[in-house]
Amino acid sequence: TIIQWNARGLRSRISDFRQFVFSNRFPIIVICEPKLSNPVRLSGYESMMSLTYNESSKVLVYIRRELTYLIQPVPPDDDNQYVCLTVKKKNLTFTLVCVYLSPSARFDRKRLDDILAQNPGPWIITGDFNAHHPIWGSSKVNATGQRLASFVCDHDLSLLNDGSPTFLRGTTYSSCLDLTFVSRRFAACVKWFTDIETRGSDHIPCYLNIKGFAGCHSPGTIRRIDWSAFKTNIEDACRRGLSSGLEQAIKEAARAAMRTLTCSSRRSETDVELERLRAIRRRAERRYRRTKSIHDLRAARRLQKKIQRRLDKLESQRWVKFCESLDPRKPLSQIWRIVRGLRTLPEQRFPFKALALFQSRRDKEVAEDFCRKIAGHSTCTGALAANSTPRSLESRMDMPFTIEELDAALALCNRSSSPGPDGISYRMLCNLNGRAREVLLDVFNDSWRDGQVPQEWKTSRLVPLLKPGKSPLDLASYRPIALASCVGKLMERMILARLEWFLERYSIYPNAMAGFRRVRCSIDNVIDLVTYVQHQKMSRRLSVALFMDVKGAYDNVSHEAILDALESVGLGGRVYRWVSCYLHMRSFFVETDDGPTSQHYTHRGVPQGGVLSPTLFNLVLIGLVERIPSSVHISIYADDICVWASGVTRPQVRARLQKAATSISTYLRDQGLEISPEKSALVAFTRKPMTAYAVSINGQNICYARTHRFLGVIIDRDLCWSPHVAGLKKRLTAISHLFKFLGGKTWGTSVHAMLQLYRTLFLGYLRYSLPVLTNTCKSNIRTIESAQGQALRVCLGLPRCTSTAETIAIARDHPASIHITLEVLRAHIRHLARAPAHHLASLLEDRPCASFCKRISAYRECLPRDYTPPERILTPPWCLDQPKLRVTVPGIRKKTELSSPALKQLSLLMLHEEYKDHVKLYTDGSTTAKGSAGAVNFPAKVEAYHFRTSHRTTSTAAELAALRSALRWIELESPQKWGIFTDSKSALQCLSS
Q: 367: which of 34, 409, 590, 653 fits an S-S bond (Cβ 3.0–4.6 Å)?
């Protein structure tokens, strides 16, 4: 049902209107005279307003985002205002024209003629025409009514109004100003009727009931899998034998365990007083229509004001209750969903269908074009011959996978990920137990041994996703999201773990590459560039940086380049053979309402959404570093490439960068890649004119820029950071405004929860770029601290006049200057202690003149001296003896469900039955504000060992340190059965993964 209503001011009726819409979920809402400068937000609806020159918009349309619709362009006008959109639902398509004609204006027939001529029928024309004619029940005729009647006849339209008044004024006058016309062939499918009350306006809401255009109501049932039944079904299938394969058995077990649940209808809380007032208003309006008494009309108007006050009070109470429900105990993902919902406006859910509607084609035809665009024009290459597989540098990479590797890969899977075309989700795979996991491991090892990847694992279902800020009516505005088989991606995750060990064990990655590597961060690349420029500037040398953008990097890299990269780093054998088959003849399709498209094949690029894709792309770029001259530095983070050089003269720097750019362009061209000169930029860290010293790529000069965004940081030529701080302030201020919606001085979210949100949202965004702001000016520091104080005043409920310094002190937070120092020291400690032989660990000696290094030197005496950076694991983890880990106690599901004596009894029973022949060690770790400590207790010898860590760390890290101390103790004792017991489930989960 479509509703059309002249609200005569929506702002004053928004509370009542929201509840009305929430209970009915109209697919389309047409509001005339909303008297709003900007549309009021309705959850689940996209809004659009009529275009005008000087007057306010008099037509406001809301449409459910689940529908397929196309907003048709209408030229602006002040007197004859229109909103036109084409709507499609399944086989029903129509054009809706929403109208408002000013009472004093002349009806511009040609304007409406043009709208109908440019848009396909059938048409529904509805709105407030302010026209009078006996045809629709008016007692008089005006010029607008005569022209409108002539227009209706010429266009073969049918009037749906039944003569019921839609406008009431006083006790003596009523008229039909809100009209609805439809194409004559469409009239039998549409029913028009009015509401029984005005809902506070002087116009009565009108409804259009369209056959085949049902409302967007929530489903009454949901389908869920009973995981206990699923486990039983799949175990039984494995014992009987899998004649049709494991994947088919998983789908059948899931189908048999599917349960249909009936959901209660979604209702809001009913307020007795509000319903009583509404009932009285309805009776007063009905009595007024019957008696035409001015007293009844005034009574209805007075009741409307009482209803509005009641709704405003209820709305405030519900919002306060909602805000108070936000606390740190809720999952952070749930809070993020709420925050995103508050910050983003609803948009069309399926814009790709709107593209098909715009082109007047079937969804499947447009999807075929999209698939052909993704596949490109490359030709298929033959499969790799078996005798051309190179040998592997590390023979242990070819060993069969172990059950521990499978368990570790399953622990890293995101259970909420969407399944691929086969319908098997990660949640199904994680619920495989016992024999089923062994069968799955056998499937993986067969594929690993034979070097064959099933075609089902190489087939993806593409979902076109609209790029942010792009037009939905252009095919180039969509990027594909590939949903591949979760079974295949699970095996990719196991192979990735081996690849990561090999690449780090043999130091394959160059120092310049930080993307998709453990304990590496994108800010490291920015620190590398900034410290180099600052150090060279102190030596009176000129520095220039070239930022390059690789066009369609992941989609265009050639498969031959990937295989050559594998061979060059020593990854042959089964890895080479499996990856070769994994890349060969990958197919994809798009699912539409008209059915799936044909299978399309891609013969270049890494698989979109593949677990191995980032690492395979990194391997291709490893050889790029060797092509760069020694006088030029390079930074690579995924497909973001930056090279920089310094020199005494401008021609010297230009020559070095030109040589590097030519080498990079040539190398990438050999790999099937191309640099985009339009998106590349040069930044010269000097005020000398540089336009005469341009660097060219592919015959096109790269423009010099004063600023450039690199890995989320805006770098300016003076390294004063004012442009970046301005961007920071804008983003941080938006976060502060968000906090204002969640709490105030006396209401809303608790202070503790608000400070938790502050640390998560505000500081989480601010801290990333702080390590490079060490030389920024005091005014920039004050700008950041001002935004910091603004956010904290909102969180603490302090007056706006409270000073920033006092606010930060009350919140027990640090000012921005201290946060900068903390982040610099944290980054330095990470370089020293987290990664083996990090190339930035020696910055203090290599670039002492950089402000980053000066800040570290000023606090060097306060830093721990004895670091124990992790060593490279020489033995592959899959070759090590895996300890038996247990994180559950039989009979205990939740500690809160049992009493303390019951918990103790069950734990002691498990220790006696299963570990009575083990020598027991007990460990513990804890963290306080002053530091971290751990302990190991050996009851058999009545001995204990205590220690403190060199610096404060997390409680899980302290527990892991205690477990390591227990292992060292065991190494000194005689061989026997040992059991280490800890109260940290997270520490054991870290060991299992």
A: 590
